[in-house]
Amino acid sequence: MTEIIFEYRWLILISSEILFWCTFILFLVLRYLYNSGAQNFFLVISIINQFLNIPLAAFDYYQIRHVSMFQISILLLYIYAITRGRRDIYKLDKLILRNVASIKNNSFRSTVRSPLEHLLSGDIHAKIERRKFYLHLIVYFLAQIFVFSGHQSYQPINQFWTVFIIIDGLWSLSFTFFQYDKNAN
Q1: Which residue from 1, 37, 40, 93 lies 20 to 30 Å from 123 (Cα-Cα)?
Q2: How far is CA 104 from the centre of its chain?
Q3: Looking at the structure, do residues 74 and 13 belong to the same domain, yes or no?
Q4: Contact at 8 Å (CB) between 95 and 28?
Q5: Domain extent at residue 124
Q6: How many distinct structural domains can be found in the chain?
Q7: pTM reported for the whole predicted model
Q8: What angle separates helix 9-33 from helix 53-64, to the nearest 10 degrees?
Q9: Residue 19 host element (H or E)
Q10: Residues 13 and 74: beta-carbon distance below 8 Å
Q11: How far apart, in Å, do the first and last CA atoms of the chain sit?
């Protein structure tokens, strides 16, 4: 049994993430569409599902006795969930609320909004995104100098982080070049 788990660990991780997002979206839809008690079941399933990745990473470490790309990927998933994931879940929540309100023929304007939402114009939001990227870039360069220089064992982490910093840079700078002003209406 342990060999099967170890062999299919990536498939288990990807399936776990798909299951998380499906159950979380179901939770949000049930929350706004039916306002039923069944929504709590899907929320509990999605939370339990996320915590099952930790034993999977520990099992992987136990099997190979060193840090692997699989364990780093799980760590990065948790870092994402703690940092940017909360904002993305908030955006998903608003999207589903807007869609369910249109299905139920309710006005989306009557729903609760973030108290700071009206303050984030295009320029301010772009500035915040750039600051986050610059901080990430500084940490990246410091890690290149003090951690990764001369260590071949960290090469997969370095490659993954390089790709991630490029994506983060493109994402953050896109707010500068393609600004959207929420207050224009």
Answers
A1: 93
A2: 29
A3: yes
A4: no
A5: 116-185
A6: 2
A7: 0.56
A8: 170
A9: helix 9-33
A10: yes
A11: 59
